[in-house]
């Protein structure tokens, strides 16, 4: 039998769309606008399945919205600066620019072969001088507005290669190339003042209803607003040496209620009092040195063993002049949070508990739920739950909140050296954003340093500061530093000798405003504000959850900073956010424990058990767990292979059919083959319906027989459900609904007998609806079928049809949905919905996802007309 030849058809339809420039964003013609954007890729050289999934989702939305009459902006670009290009330059001796643009060219071709409805006329790469020139303008505007500034800050320094290292180049405290122990050095660096917006960045999260709850929570934690008390502790004794530099130590605490459980005070190794004590205490100096080597970042400290050093200083308890506590320098206290000093309550803080256990310091519980034994509560570790105060004198019996308030009230009234002992304080975890990178392949920071004039912004008529191209990577370090012909310039102000800033910007800067640039990608200013305001915020942003914190936060900051400097008119960049799940695959290992790629394996099922062999030598291969596709485990499927074998539509269809978009999708050969058969089936049915059905544009007969009416109901029902499913991101439900219509159409086409006028009409109508609802998912297939049905226009320029309410199944059933026997939700479906459609809808339920957590769904049991049971 005849088959639909995807290899021949797909490029043909891509060319047809291109010729008509259907996806180029129209000038403002009064239609409502819709901006759908997927996170742009890093040009590593090849697209992977995660990209395919991400862009297929965005394309469904873009095609649907276009058909619904929106003026759609759906652009694509490249996050093209960054370290891998420099590594390639060092290892393969290719210039970062050549490497990057070659990769872009290869990936552009790959993306084009997927048939995405992108406006390629707006393509940008962040390494294009056109792009980073405007980024330099933004930087200078921020500088003028006080949103960019310089200060000293630490970097990772490789003492052998004599170079600054990015965090990802430090592996277990050592330089990735030299293997040398990395040191912390202070350099003057550039910062963007994200903290100017802390309050607003936090509060506005509550006004983003179309963002996933978990992403908003992650952002809240990252911004980290905390309310506490700053308490001054008087230094009363200095056993170790002559004198302390100050009379007091100020600590920040969020748990003033635990003050009677205090057992020591701890200072950051970078605290001025630590340094002062170290001056006459060589062992302490050595300890501080050791802390520095280990790295003092929050991440490094999280995992490190808690260690400390007794300074010999003693402080007096704020509520008891006779109670003296030791002062330690401790490696887990950060200098840049709170006051860089804490009081420790081991019974109720795990870090303090570990520390106290190690150094034999008191552990006194002061909070316990009523009716529990406080000592038993802390037998194996700190208790950080709620309760009432015990062992705490005048606080005993109070709730935690009451005790916090009581301590604050009393200490605010006490004085030390005529000022209050304590003050209420709000603290933020969020720090200003250090953007200086000592790297070549990034956006140059457009300032000049002059001995006489200081930091001078590069004047407008000298922008952009272009990267020099004639650079070498034969030595470690930043090539910009040793390129004197680029670096040395006259001072724009006094004309004297001066030099360029050689730091470039963190590549997160590049991705913090590209969505705005897409609205006017060739403008001679960063944006055209009126145009930007028409499109922004992005209606639907789609990407991986790995960007839930930094990228999204930086973009939210940039939008505010661009508003403050007149480039856009809104605060929030993304009105809707969707974070998609990963593409995962089985893993395989041979008898030697080596990973084997799926392409080299044949999996077979015998007697219900699955087994695998290596194709080349027939040796058995062990089937391992399903994991994220990764090079290290070799369980990667190359999209190119899939596109060649099955075509783009099958890949897209499978990707969107198998699981709800927010969950992981398991890539399987069987699944792809199933999708491929579906594609062929739709094509065959469309051709049969074209032969057997009414002519294009035939008028509806006055009367319909029951079978014709049933087919019409199936078609209009599917149409309504697909539209609703796309709006809700239930793509798998949409695929199930179109499969159902495929089945109905197939049934109606059975038999050789000629059909009546009413059935002929219904056949054409059902086939056309099927083609139109399949189009966002499998657009090439849809065009091929549309043409077979006699249309000369393209599906891509055809409006989304309206479902006839009179034909929508009014008979619906409500199914209770149980997970492992417990009711979690209910769904409403047409009486005649089949089990597969019901199952798909159930799998998409958030309540189900929540109830089963990380566990896979083992089975979905549909008891017709009664109940659905999910077994996890
Ligand atoms: C006493 C105490 C008792 C604390 C207790 C906690 C539990 P958040 O919520 O993040 O603001 N802390 C304060 N400054 C610190 C620093 N620079 N480095 C490391 N830890 C620091 O956390 C505030 C709590 O973290 C503070 O409250 C302080 O320990 C610690 F049962 O004070 B707490
Ligand atoms: Zn000067």
From TrEMBL:
Family membership noted in the UniProt record: Belongs to the class-I aminoacyl-tRNA synthetase family.
Keyword DNA damage: no
HAMAP family in alphabetical order: Leu_tRNA_synth_B (MF_00049_B)
Gene Ontology CC annotation, any one: cytosol
Residues of the Methionyl/Valyl/Leucyl/Isoleucyl-tRNA synthetase anticodon-binding domain: 713-835
GO MF annotation: an example: ATP binding
List of residues binding ATP: 631
Residue numbers covered by motif 'HIGH' region: 41-51
Protein name according to UniProt: Leucine--tRNA ligase
Enzyme nomenclature, EC number: 6.1.1.4
Sequence motif 'KMSKS' region, location on chain: 628-632
Pfam family of the protein (one): tRNA-synt_1
InterPro entries (alphabetical): aa-tRNA-synth_I_CS, aa-tRNA-synth_Ia, Leu-tRNA-ligase, Leu_tRNA-synth_edit, M/V/L/I-tRNA-synth_anticd-bd, Methionyl/Leucyl_tRNA_Synth, Rossmann-like_a/b/a_fold, tRNAsynth_Ia_anticodon-bd
Residue ranges annotated for the Leucyl-tRNA synthetase editing domain, each copy included: 220-411
Keywords associated with the record: Aminoacyl-tRNA synthetase, ATP-binding, Cytoplasm, Ligase, Nucleotide-binding, Protein biosynthesis
Cellular localisation: Cytoplasm
Catalytic activity: tRNA(Leu) + L-leucine + ATP = L-leucyl-tRNA(Leu) + AMP + diphosphate
SUPFAM superfamilies for the chain: Anticodon-binding domain of a subclass of class I aminoacyl-tRNA synthetases, Nucleotidylyl transferase, ValRS/IleRS/LeuRS editing domain
PROSITE patterns in alphabetical order: AA_TRNA_LIGASE_I
Oxidoreductase among keywords: no
Enzyme class, spelled out: ligase
GO terms, biological process: leucyl-tRNA aminoacylation
């Amino acid at each position: 039998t005849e088959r639909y030849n995807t290899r021949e058809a797909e490029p043909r339809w891509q060319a047809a769309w291109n010729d008509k420039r259907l996806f180029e964003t129209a000038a403002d013609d009064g239609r409502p606008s819709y901006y759908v954007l997927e996170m742009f890729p890093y040009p590593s050289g090849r697209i992977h399945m995660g990209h395919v999934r991400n862009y297929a989702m965005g394309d469904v939305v873009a095609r649907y919205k276009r058909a619904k009459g929106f003026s759609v902006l759906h652009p694509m670009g490249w996050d093209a600066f960054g370290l891998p290009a420099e590594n390639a330059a060092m290892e393969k001796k290719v210039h970062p620019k050549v490497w990057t643009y070659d990769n872009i060219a290869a990936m552009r071709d790959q993306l084009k072969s997927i048939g995405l409805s992108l406006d390629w006329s707006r393509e940008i790469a962040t390494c294009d001088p056109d792009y980073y020139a405007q980024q330099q303008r933004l930087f200078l505007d921020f500088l003028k507005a006080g949103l960019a500034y310089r200060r000293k800050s630490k970097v990772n320094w490789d003492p052998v290669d004599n170079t600054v290292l990015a965090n990802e180049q430090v592996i277990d405290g050592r330089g990735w190339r030299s293997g040398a122990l990395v040191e912390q050095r202070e350099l003057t660096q550039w910062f963007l003042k994200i903290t100017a917006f802390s309050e607003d960045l936090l509060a506005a999260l509550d006004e983003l209803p179309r963002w996933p709850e978990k992403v908003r929570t992650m952002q809240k934690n990252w911004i980290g607003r905390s309310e506490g008390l700053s308490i001054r502790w008087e230094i009363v004794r200095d056993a170790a040496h002559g004198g302390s530099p100050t009379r007091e130590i100020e600590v920040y605490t969020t748990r003033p209620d635990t003050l009677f459980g205090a057992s020591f005070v701890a200072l950051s190794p970078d605290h001025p009092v630590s340094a002062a004590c170290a001056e006459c205490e060589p062992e302490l100096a050595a300890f501080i040195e050791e802390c520095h080597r280990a790295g003092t970042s929050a991440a490094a400290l999280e995992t490190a063993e808690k260690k400390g050093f007794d300074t010999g200083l003693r402080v007096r308890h704020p509520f008891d002049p006779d109670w003296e506590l030791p002062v330690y320098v401790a490696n887990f206290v950060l200098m840049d949070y709170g006051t860089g000093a804490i009081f420790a309550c081991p019974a109720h803080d795990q870090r303090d508990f570990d520390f106290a256990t190690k150094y034999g310091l008191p552990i006194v519980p002061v909070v316990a739920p009523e009716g529990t034994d406080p000592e038993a509560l802390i037998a194996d570790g700190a208790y950080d739950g709620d309760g009432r105060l015990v062992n705490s004198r005048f606080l005993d019996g109070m709730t935690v909140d009451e005790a916090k308030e009581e301590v604050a009230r009393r200490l605010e009234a006490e004085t030390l050296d005529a000022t209050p002992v304590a003050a209420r304080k709000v603290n933020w975890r969020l720090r200003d954003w250090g953007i200086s990178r000592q790297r070549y392949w990034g956006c140059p920071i457009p300032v000049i340093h002059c001995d006489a004039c200081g930091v001078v912004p590069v004047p407008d008529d000298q922008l952009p500061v272009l990267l020099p191209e004639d650079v070498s990577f034969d030595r470690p370090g930043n090539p910009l530093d040793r390129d004197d012909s680029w670096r040395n310039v006259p001072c724009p102000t006094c004309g004297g000798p001066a030099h360029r800033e050689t730091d470039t910007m963190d590549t997160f800067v590049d991705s913090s405003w590209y969505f705005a640039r897409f609205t006017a990608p060739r403008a001679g200013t960063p944006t055209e504000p009126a145009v930007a305001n028409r499109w922004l915020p992005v209606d639907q942003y789609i990407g991986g959850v790995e960007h839930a914190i930094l990228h999204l936060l930086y973009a939210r900051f940039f939008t505010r900073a661009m508003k403050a400097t007149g480039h856009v008119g809104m605060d929030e960049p993304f009105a809707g956010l969707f974070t998609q799940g990963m593409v995962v695959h089985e893993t395989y290992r041979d008898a030697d424990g080596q990973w084997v790629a799926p392409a080299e394996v044949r999996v077979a099922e015998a007697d219900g058990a699955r087994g695998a062999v290596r194709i080349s030598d027939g040796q058995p291969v062990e089937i391992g767990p399903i994991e994220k596709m990764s090079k290290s485990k070799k369980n990667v499927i190359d999209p190119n292979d899939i596109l060649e074998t099955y075509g783009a539509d099958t890949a897209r269809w499978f990707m969107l059919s198998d699981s709800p978009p927010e969950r992981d999708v398991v890539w399987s050969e069987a699944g792809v083959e199933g999708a491929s058969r579906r594609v062929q089936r739709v094509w065959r049915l469309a051709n049969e319906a074209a032969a057997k059905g009414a002519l294009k544009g035939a008028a509806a007969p006055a009367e319909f027989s029951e079978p014709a009416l049933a087919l019409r109901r199936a078609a209009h029902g599917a149409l309504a459900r697909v539209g609703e499913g796309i709006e809700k991101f239930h793509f798998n439900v949409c695929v199930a609904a179109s499969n159902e219509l495929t089945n109905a159409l197939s049934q109606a086409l059975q038999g050789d007998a000629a059909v009546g006028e009413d059935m002929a009409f219904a056949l054409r109508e059902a086939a056309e609806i099927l083609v139109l609802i399949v189009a966002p998912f499998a657009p090439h297939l849809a065009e091929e079928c549309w043409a077979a049905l006699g249309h000369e226009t393209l599906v891509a320029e055809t409006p989304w049809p309206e479902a006839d309410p009179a034909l929508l199944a009014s008979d619906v059933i409500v199914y209770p949905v149980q997970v492992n026997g417990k009711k979690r939700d209910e769904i409403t479906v047409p009486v005649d919905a089949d089990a597969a459609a019901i199952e798909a809808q159930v799998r998409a339920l958030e309540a189900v996802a929540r109830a089963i957590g990380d566990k896979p769904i083992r089975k979905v049991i549909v008891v017709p007309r009664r109940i659905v049971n999910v077994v996890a």
